[in-house]
Amino acid sequence: MRTFSARLSRTVTAAACTLAVLVLGGQAAAAPPESSLALSLRHSDGTVALTQLLCDPAGGSHPTSAQACAALADAGGEPAALDSTRPGTACPMIHAPVRASAHGHWKGKPVHFTTTYNNGCLADVESGGVFGF
């Protein structure tokens, strides 16, 4: 049984290496992003939205990663310091709380942030788009 397990492990490792070479086309992989945050929004109805925000370079699954990265950069990577002034954006005065969380790292510094906004629109506006997903 141990021999089969060892052979299987070597086979899986070899397959992963081959796949990596094929995917990368023999080129060196790009440098990892300087910042990576797992973001979540827990809505009052129990649904949860999740996304990943990568910065420097901007990317991940966040729909407006460049805008969100710029907002965080302006706030020094501190979600609690995000600028909540986005002119021309009005939100309905509907009380439907969302609990927003950000966990990961910003330029090597750990980030652990949780807050509650009155609704999803305010989460987007008051976070400069970081929680706009």
TrEMBL record:
Keywords assigned by UniProt, alphabetized: Disulfide bond, Protease inhibitor, Secreted, Serine protease inhibitor, Signal
Its annotated compartments are:
Secreted
Signal peptide region:
1-30
Q: Entry's InterPro entries? A: Prot_inh_SSI_I16_CS, Subtilisin_inhibitor, Subtilisin_inhibitor-like_sf
Q: Name one GO cellular component term.
A: extracellular region
Give the highest taxon in the source lineage. Answer: Bacteria
Any one GO molecular-function label of the UniProt entry: serine-type endopeptidase inhibitor activity
Major localisation = secreted
**What family does this belong to?**
Belongs to the protease inhibitor I16 (SSI) family.
Q: What is the protein's given name?
A: Subtilisin inhibitor domain-containing protein
List the taxonomic lineage: Bacteria, Bacillati, Actinomycetota, Actinomycetes, Pseudonocardiales
